[in-house]
Amino acid sequence: MPACGPRSVLFDVITIFPEFFTSILEHGVLKRGRAGEQIEIRIHDLREATDDRHHTVDDRPFGGGPGMVFKPEPVFRAVERLKEAAPNEPCRVVLLTPQGRLLTQAVAEELSREKRLVLICGRYEGVDERVAEHLATDEISIGDYVLAGGELGAAVLMETVTRLIPGVLGNDSSAGQDSFAAFDNLGASETQGILDCPHYTRPADLRGWKVPEVLLSGNHEEIRRWRRRQALEKTWRKRPDLLECASLSEEDREMLEEIRHAAPEPQL
Ligand code: 9WO
Q1: 124 and 57, same structural domain?
Q2: 102: β partners
Q3: What pLDDT, in 10s, does the model give residues 55-114?
Q4: Is 178 a catalytic residue?
Q5: Are residues 61 and 189 in the same domain?
Q6: CA distances in angstroms from 17 to 22, 44, 141, 152, 181, listed in the order given
Q7: Domain with 86 in it
Q8: Which of 59, 114, 125, 159 is catalytic?
Q9: Nearest protein CA to atom 7 of ligand 1, as residue
């Protein structure tokens, strides 16, 4: 952990591609922050938190559908090990996902005041929803687009946060005079489509947190409707702005009417 200066941040990054970060740690702002001991960055291979000989991190989605889903247990185990190693050190657990709160300059400012940030980088079709629901304290997006994984989001977040820590940038340019500093109310850019539906994989019951019954039913039409409704409701709650630009079917509009009548106002 870097020496206790006025502000320093420890980043713990959880990924199945640790080598993704080799280069950026040796260049630019992150290199400066590490050399100046304003930050420490530890990269953790998620496969080291698995408990099978094949180091399995993913599984087929309940309810069918393409691709694979990140299993919840290795992610829970990785984060909980990190927390147990420093139980008195509060930390924010950030899941990088297109469905998250947009990373603006103001959000970077907020995160730069934390002592410890654990960053979870997903891959494949998604991360079991129970990670977002019961483990992450924050979901952060770097923009309204889908990448191949959360690693680029983690890299962007670490850079935007590190450059805001006093002492990291040279005397000739301070983050406080950033041209973007005045842009901390940037709205979300135009976007196509809506947020993703929740994803689940085995186990069907994790500490009493059960996979929604419909996904175990085998009724593909019911599953399709449930997934679409979940995506619409999540978008309505987290990013209602996206609905203005999304191409919605008549079925979507009917579902949204039901959602609007059944639930309280969206939490912005
Ligand atoms: C996949 C997806 C597909 C359509 C609409 C929304 C979606 N969200 C995801 C998703 O969260 N995927 C997981 C993480 C697993 C697959 C790779 N991941 C990912 C994170 N893709 N893109 C991001 C990301 C992270 C931060 N900011 C923007 C995008």
Answers
A1: yes
A2: 141
A3: 999 999 999 999 999 999 999 999 999 999 999 999 999 999 999 999 988 899 999 999
A4: yes
A5: no
A6: 10, 9, 19, 11, 32
A7: 9-162
A8: 125
A9: 196
